[in-house]
């Protein structure tokens, strides 16, 4: 296809400050069909309307159309495992043992800012920095960053871009269930409805004690995969958490990171020939029995302070896109193709409405002037306070004037 027709060109461009020609070129580059492109444009307009209407409920600033409430942004490291299988050595995973700085945004999935105790999807979005390679989506800039976006459920409640575009029309009117089930006109999407119920039913005690899933497939080198993170073995969490405070997830996140770090395994699941692992049906959970998750990287979150005004503002304004990545990596399926355009257009819209730039960090430092001290000033150094000498512990503190 050599040309795609843009719906409502003047209105679309005026709303989003987005160059229609650039939108067309990106869609053509991905091989997007006209029906897909129509669905994407409809989805962008719906997402913009969700953001506008949610602002009336949430108040300023204009937020994301989904995952509007951040439960915290944290500094982390992302380290490629030394024993990574050779077939996965591509993109940022090319060099075993390589460590990258990263930011992680934890969030609640709803369009509205609501109490943490309410059932909802929970998000984990990782921005890995200083990644060598050419960007796969030039319109997102050559930042040298790679984003991984996940929720704590393994499947989505829309199969593809066409489900998504139809559902978004109802969500833009805050009619949350009308696409899934309706008496007049008669409509019933049972599997999608079941997945939606699963998504909005989860309640967690802390963002650090959950497994997160990509839901959608990706190409890593020559392998088709999904990815996931889960807490490392040996991590401990509070036995009982008071869920009554409206923002208890942020409180739990900060309390744990005052004294302890956290750790996640980053894992991939390969698509297996002969098993039902579709590319373009996100409601299907790929069988872990047929293809177990394989750890290929480790995420460490050091003890730190997370709630400075500067960091809270960054957490609100930072933008995530699954196409912000370097070569050797490619999001697959119609929903992922749509996300490239929808996420950018909605991000541009909310930043335009809020009159703020879109931050794209290059380190843990959030200040314009990058210094080594700035990169670590929010970290908490933890040193065991042993009552007696521990020669085998290189972090042991001296007792008084004792010399080692």
Automatic annotation (TrEMBL):
Keywords: Heme, Iron, Metal-binding, Oxidoreductase, Peroxidase, Signal. GO terms for cellular component: cytoplasm. Residues 63-161 form the Catalase core domain. Its EC number is 1.11.1.6. It holds the Pfam family Catalase. It is an enzyme of class 1 (oxidoreductase). SUPFAM superfamilies: Heme-dependent catalase-like. One of its GO terms (molecular function) is catalase activity. One of its GO terms (biological process) is response to hydrogen peroxide. Residues 1-22 form the signal peptide. Belongs to the catalase family. This is catalase. It comes from Vibrio nigripulchritudo SOn1.
